Amino acid sequence: MMVKSKLKLVEVDYASEGEANCKALGQIFERIGDKWTIMIVGALSRGPMRFNALQRSIPGLSHKMLTTTLRGLERDGLVTRTAFATIPPRVDYELTEQGSSLHEPLLTLASWARSQQSYIEGARKRFDERAEE
Amino acid sequence: MMVKSKLKLVEVDYASEGEANCKALGQIFERIGDKWTIMIVGALSRGPMRFNALQRSIPGLSHKMLTTTLRGLERDGLVTRTAFATIPPRVDYELTEQGSSLHEPLLTLASWARSQQSYIEGARKRFDERAEE
DNA sequence: CAGGATCCGGACGGATACTG
DNA sequence: CAGTATCCGTCCGGATCCTG
Predict the structure, then answer these.
(1) Model confidence over B86-119: pLDDT tens digits?
(2) Which residues form the HTH hxlR-type domain (chains A, B) (predicted)?
(3) Could you tell me the pTM of the whole model?
(4) Strand C reaches within 7 A of the B50 CB
(5) What is the CATH architecture of A17-130?
C-alpha cells in the first residue's frame, strides 16, 4: 500500500518562524540534511535491508557512521530495527510509514540536484579560476 | 516572473548511482544539507537582503558562518553578491534564478518536517526514556 | 557596515580491536 | 554478522580583533 504523502505546500516560512519553533525545525533539518541519512533512506526505500548490505550499497559509508545514523533514524521513528536470533545473527532495517513518507521530498531534492548539477559544477569551476589571481 | 521549476520525478535513485556520479551528487547534497544554507535560501526567497539584515533574520547564525555559507552559495552560482561603494558600504545578496529554483524543493522538505514534527519529537522522547534503564 | 585573519576548544568521524 | 568501545587526528565553528 502506497503511503499517501501529498504534502500541502503551506506557508512554511522556515527561516522566519518563532525562535522556539525555528530551533525545533532545525533539529529535524539536522537529521534530514545529513548526507548519510539521505542515502540510507534512499536505499531503504526499495525495501528492508541488512546491515552489511546497506553499507555495501553506499560507497564511502563507514561502519561507524552507518550505525550512528541508523540509531538516529531509529530514535526518530523513521526506521525500525528487527533482529533475528539466528546464527549468524541477522538484522533488518526498514522504513516506517513516516520514514518512507520522507522519500518523496528527498526525491524532489535529488531531482533538483541532478538538474542543476552541471550548472553548479561550472559555476564552481569559474569561481575557483577567478579566485586564483 | 516565476521560475518554472516543476521538477519531473525521474528515476533518480540517489543511493545507487555510479560511484562517480554519487560522489558528485554528494557534493551538492553537502551544500543543500547544510543547516544554514536552507535558512539563508529561505530568507532570500522574499528578495535581496543585506549582510546584517540576513544575520539578524536567522537566530543563532554567527558572523563567520554567514560569510562562509554565502561564499559557498556564491561559488555555486546560487547567490549573487552586489557591493555598493557607499559609506557605510552596503552589500546585497540575492538568489540567482537557479538559487530560487531551490526554494520549492526546500519548501517541500520544510513542509514534511512540519507535518512530522510532533511525531518525531514523540518518538525521540520515547526512545530516550526507553534508553534510560 | 561588511568582512578578513587568527586562535582555539570541542565535536565529528575514521581506524582498530574486541564481543555475542 | 552485527554490533560496541576506544583512541586519536582533523576540521568545524565560535570568539575576538582588526581593516576599508
Answers:
(1) 999 999 999 999 999 999 998 888 889 889 999 9
(2) 22-121
(3) 0.85
(4) yes
(5) Orthogonal Bundle (1.10)
